Amino acid sequence: MNQDYEVVIGLEVHAELKTNSKIFCSCSTAFGAEPNAQICPGCAGFPGMLPVLNHRVVEIAIMAGLALNCEIAETCRFDRKNYFYPDLPRAYQISQLDLPICQIGYLEIDLDGEKKRIGITRAHLEEDAGKLVHQGNITSSPFSLVDLNRSGMPLLEIVSEPDMRSAQEARAYMEKLRSILLFAGVSNCKMEEGSLRCDANVSVRPRGQKELGIRSEIKNLNSFRALEKAVEYEARRHVEAIEDGEKLIQETRTWDEEKQITLSMRSKEEAEDYRYFPDPNLPPIKINREWVEKIKATLPELPDQAQQRLIEEYGLPTYDAAILTLTPEFLAYFDDCLAHYHDAKTVSNWMMGELSKHLNQNNMEINDCKIQPEALARMLSLIDEGTISGKMAKNVFEEMFASGKEPDLIIKEKGMVQISDASTLLKVIDEIIGANPGVVEDYRNGKEKAFGFFVGQVMKATRGQANPAIVNKLLKDRLKGD
Q1: What sign has the CA pseudo-torsion 167, 185, 12, 85?
Q2: How many other β-carbons are positioned within 10 Å of the β-carbon of residue 357?
Q3: Which helix (H) or strand (E) segment is 108 a member of?
Q4: Is the dihedral of CA 464, 465, 470, 475 positive or negative?
Q5: Rg (alpha carbons) of the chain, rounded to whole number
Q6: What are phi and psi of 56, to 5 degrees?
Q7: Cα–Cα–Cα angle for 105, 311, 225, rounded to 5 degrees
Q8: Which of 207, 264, 395, 476 is at 20 to 30 A from 143, Cα to Cα?
Q9: Are 466 and 418 in contact (CB under 8 A)?
C-alpha cells in the first residue's frame, strides 16, 4: 500500500456460545441437523411467543468477558434491533445497545516479536438470524430457501477499538481472540461451521492525520486468510480512489473469494436506522459481584499464561510457545507427550513440523489424529536409543499417522531397525572402500566431497538402516588408514 497513507482497522467478531440450547428457548444448538428441524414457535417468530433467557448464556458471556480483561456490567439490558430480512422471522433481532454485558477490555497480539495491545470496546449478547440457501441462477429461475435452525443461537459480538494498522495485525488479533475463546471454553470457534465470523471495518487516512477516513464494512469473513486478503484489498481500493479523486461512501461490502475482491452490498446503516428500543419482554439483568468472582475463580489456564509456563518451565522459545498454545487440545497433546518423554524442545519440533504438516495436509484437528501422545513419545525414545535414525523416524511417523499403529510394531513389520553394530558396518565399509580406490585417493588429497560419496554408498548398501553417526566415525578411521 502507498506509504503516504495509514490503514485503520476495527473488527466485529461474532462468536457462537457453547450451550446446549438457544438463547431464548430450549431448542437444540447441535450443528448439522436437517433444515428447520430445531425450531419452535419462538425462534420461528410466531406472534405472541415470549423469550425466556438462558441462564447459562449469561454465565458464559461473563466468562468470555473476564478472559478478555473486560469490565462486567452490574446491569445489562436487551434491545430490539429492527430490520426486515427473510431469515429474521420477527423482523427484529434481540441484541444489546446501550447496556452491554461486557465493555472496555483488551488483548495482546505478538507480531514479528513485538507485542501490541488491542482495545475491546464492548462485547454484547444477541441472537443469531437464520440462514438463506440460494438456488439456481439468472437463467434458471433463481430462488432462496430459509433454514431457521440457526435462528436464536446465542452470540457474543466482540467489538474492537480501531487499533489495528495492517491486515497482518488484524489476522493476529483474530487468531489470538479465537485462541482465548477456545481456552476459556466458551465457544468451539469452528469457522467452517459459522460459529466464529468476522466483520472488518476498514478506512485509510493520510499518515499523520488524526481524523478517521470514510469506512467500509466487509461482512462475514469466515477464515483468517479471507480476513487478511479482504483488508489488504480494501485498503488498496481506498487509497486508489482517494488518489483518483473519487468520493468514497460509507458502505457495507462482501468478499468474493473466487475473484479476490470486495463488492458493494448496500450503504452502511447507522444505529438510528435500526430504531433500537428496550425489549419489553425481557427485564434488565442484575449481575451479582459474588457471581462474577465465582466465575473468575473457575477460569482455566489462558493462552498468555500457558505461553509463560512453557517458556519458564521448559525454556522453549517464544515462537514455539505461541504455536503450541493456539488451541487447548494442541497444548494438552504437548503436555501429555512430556509425561512420557522429557525433552520439550524435541517434542515441540516434531509437533510444529511433521505433526502439523500431516494435520494440515489432511485438513484434520489434533483430536482426529491417530497418533497418541505416548506413541509419539515412544518413537522419540527409539531415536535416542539408536533403534531408528531421524530419517527413518519420518517414515515411521507417516505410517503411525495413517494407521495408528505403535512405532515398535511398524519397525518390526518393515524391518527398519537401525544398524549400529560396528563389526557389521565395517564389513560394508571395507567392501566399498576396496571397490573405489580412486575415490579414496581423492579424499586423502583433500577432496571432502569424496567422503559424502562413501556415506551415500554405505547408506545405499544398508537400505538406509546404518547409524549415520557410527558410519561417519568408522569411515573417517578407515580412510585415515586406521
Answers
A1: positive
A2: 12
A3: strand 102-111
A4: negative
A5: 30
A6: -65, -35
A7: 55
A8: 264
A9: yes
Q: Edge to edge, what strands does the sheet with 154-160 contain?
A: 71-72, 102-111, 114-127, 154-160, 5-16, 196-206, 216-221, 251-256, 261-267
Residue pLDDT tens, the chain, 482 long: 678 899 999 999 999 999 999 999 999 999 999 999 999 999 898 988 999 999 999 999 999 999 999 999 999 999 999 988 888 999 999 999 999 999 999 999 998 888 999 999 999 999 999 998 888 776 677 888 999 999 999 999 999 999 999 999 999 999 999 999 999 999 999 998 889 999 999 999 999 899 999 999 999 898 999 999 999 999 999 999 999 999 999 999 999 999 999 999 877 666 678 899 999 999 999 999 999 999 999 999 999 999 999 999 999 999 999 999 999 999 999 999 999 999 999 999 999 999 999 999 999 999 999 999 999 999 999 999 888 888 889 999 999 999 999 999 999 888 777 777 678 788 888 888 888 888 777 778 778 787 888 888 888 887 777 777 788 888 788 887 65
Cell of 40: 419452535
Instruction: Say how far apart CA 39 and CA 41 lie, in whole Å.
Output: 7
The residue type at 255: W
User: What residue type is assigned to position 103 of the chain?
Assistant: Q
Backbone phi, psi, residue 414, to 5°: -100, 0
Mention every residue, 6+ apart, whose C-beta is less than 8 A from residue 256.
262, 263
CATH topology of domain 422-479: Arc Repressor Mutant, subunit A (1.10.10)
For the chain, give every domain's residue range: 5-292, 301-414, 422-479
